[in-house]
Amino acid sequence: MSDPERIRMGFIGSGLMARGHMREMLRRDLADIVAVCEPSPAAFASTVALFDEHGVTPPINEPDWRRFIQTFADRLDAACIVTPHALHFEQATACLEAGLDVLLEKPMVMNADEAMSLIATRDRTGRLLVVAFPGSLSPQVRTAARLIASGEAGAILNVDAVVWQDWQANSTGTWRQDPAISGGGFLFDTGAHMLNTVTDLAGEDVAEVVAWLEDDGRPVDLRGVVMARLASGALVTMNGCGRAIPSLGSEIRVFCERATLRTGVWGERLDVQRHGSRRLSPVRSVASRSVWEQFIAVRTGREPNPSPPEVGLRMARLWDAIRESSARGGSVVRPGVAA
Q1: How crowded is the C-beta side of 158, counted as CA atoms within 13 Å?
Q2: Whole-angstrom distance, CA of residue 115 vs CA of residue 312
Q3: Among 116, 136, 195, 230, which residue has the fewest nearby CB atoms (within 10 Å)?
Q4: C-alpha–C-alpha distance, residues 312 and 130, integer Å
Q5: Residues 260 and 272: beta-carbon distance below 8 Å
Q6: Are strands 156-165 and 235-241 parallel, antiparallel or unpaired?
Q7: Among 114, 117, 89, 111, CA closest to 102
Q8: Which pLDDT does position 285 carry in this prediction?
Q9: What would the mean pLDDT of 217-233 be, rounded to a whole number?
Q10: pLDDT for position 4
Q11: From the centroid of its chain, how far is CA 330?
């Protein structure tokens, strides 16, 4: 009898992040990685070495992603897309239309128009689309989101978020600093985790945005500050610094009428201080699971999709407004309202 959780997987992209997913799949032995699409001989050589390390026959490589889908779609159940940001929309659309479920790396797409089109394709094809944002997939963030959405914590008053990294040094000379491919700099790369988790926790659209992005002489932004008002009237501040000393960290605080919540942009923790208590205390929620484990749970119907493209659409609308406001010198932008 076949194992319903064991699926035939294909990868578009086999760089460092993709190999992290592959390593988890090989370790747990829950998938057959049938084929990959990797144009870089060096990246594919590293993929072969990974499979050799686990004593598994390496997958076939088709370097052209269109030929990859055409050749392997009928031999696969799902595809994991781990490629530069500008490629996500076209590749995810093609995979869905070929009948494949999709696990799509962050950020989902480049802008809100692409997000709406991808949702329409998902609906038309009836396939599954999970966006691989660790924040939305985190049990800690899901617990926080339920606490907020249920009204138990009371209405959101303010949200304050920060993320930092020595991103400039780490990304120099890579596609991440090419705006035509990356779609942005630090705030749309590592900072995308902050934008996504904040919008996910808020559970509502942003009504007004003011933002400043600073490139410090580089082709893309390295630092950014965002102020926003949610549709409910809650106030949001977000601060991203990609020129930090060698380090990586984050924090999000959500101030509600009856509780204060603290988490991180990757959902790496959850602390709550309720009305009447003196300090934040850790929430003993379900242990974190890998992106891959959650993708299987959603695909087999055991759990609802914790990171659907609708969250990606909210983030894309926010990112569009951030770029517009910064380009206009920090002017107020109202998403969905013509200037």
Answers
A1: 6
A2: 7
A3: 116
A4: 10
A5: yes
A6: parallel
A7: 89
A8: 66
A9: 97
A10: 56
A11: 26
